[in-house]
Amino acid sequence: MSLRRTYLDRGIGETRAVVTLDGRPERLLIRRDDDEPRLQLGARLIARVASVEPALATAFLDLGGGFEAILAFKPDGRPVRGAAIEVEIRGEPRRGKLAQARMIGAGQGEPRLLTPAPDLSADLETFAPGAPVEGREARQAADDAESEALEVLHPLPGGGLIAVEPTRALTAVDVDLSERKGSDAKRVTRQANLEAIATAARVLRLKGLGGIVVLDLVGRGHDGNALMAAARAAFGPDNPGVSIGPVGRFGTMELSLPRRTRPLLERLCREDGALSDRTLAQRLIRRLEAEAAVDAGGRFVAVCAPEVARAAAPLITLLAAKIGARFAVTEDAARPRERLDVGPVR
Q1: Cα 249–chain centre separation
Q2: How far is 92 from 94, CA to CA, in rounded Å?
Q3: Domain locations in the chain?
Q4: In which element (H, E) is residue 140 found?
Q5: Structural contact between residues 272 and 317, judged by C-beta atoms closer than 8 angstroms
Q6: Per-residue pLDDT for the chain (346 aa), expressed as one digit of tens each?
């Protein structure tokens, strides 16, 4: 029986919610203070139909404040250009893609936010009932989840690994036996593929990836029925909206997963794949908080790259209000962006 636990890390400038599955991170949701509430999953708004593309069965919506979304419609539910409608955000925007909305009904007035998205505590309740763990344990769980979400290679129970690599068109999951041992090669490969499907489902949820997914399985002569049953069970938590294809002649399994939240790598990284200045600034603030917790009366200095210091500036003000102005942040133009040093004043 699978065991899920939830954690809520309330930090300076951001809140992180974690779901673990049998002790491994399964979901990481991040909400930052400057996030646009109109674009968050579950938000309800009055939108104005800006344009309609009948050939694509798609309408473009004005959400107000310069924000947009797209709305897919059926032939008998085509909206009217200029009309006010009530919508719910069902898919957060991705890099180069607008948010996706679902029509609720007719609306009145100018585009505006009606009901904000549920907070992260409510989100966690949908994944596992009960109050989430908070405090130091939650921070460690969030740090561990963030680290794993940034990895490409993920080990399988019993040996072997999978590589999860998103592209513009799809997400590729490669299964590798690596050092997995066993005298019965067919049994070894079968078990590795079953473990790979379960691990891929967890990791894809952790990374917030959806759309087309292709699993490149190992071995030949696959037990298609067993693999299909394993996939249905592993990806069941992602329903509704999951479609699973049979194992093909080239040993691949194709899936279509719903896109709901913004991919975590887009949240944490720049387009070139490096951690963003904001993500590094959040790490710097957490380091300062940790040092302050250990030494309640100490004074500290942090050294980081100038761009990280600029991103951290508004967070530093909030941190000073919480722990007092007993730390300083020093810029070092020669320092690599990802190097963050925090220590006592000497």
Answers
A1: 32
A2: 7
A3: 4-36+118-144, 42-115, 150-265, 273-344
A4: helix 136-149
A5: no
A6: 689 999 999 999 999 999 999 999 999 999 999 999 999 999 999 999 999 999 999 999 999 999 999 999 998 889 999 999 999 999 999 999 999 999 999 999 999 999 999 999 999 999 999 999 999 999 999 999 999 999 999 999 989 999 999 998 999 999 998 776 666 778 889 999 999 999 999 999 999 999 999 999 998 888 889 999 999 999 999 999 999 999 999 999 999 999 999 999 999 999 999 999 999 999 999 999 999 999 988 899 999 999 999 999 999 999 999 999 999 999 999 999 999 999 988 7
Superfamily of domain 42-115: Nucleic acid-binding proteins (2.40.50.140)
Class of domain 4-36+118-144: alpha beta
Give the angle subtended at the CA of 121 by the CAs of 117 and 124, to the nearest 5°. Answer: 100
Structure tokens at 237: 């938590």
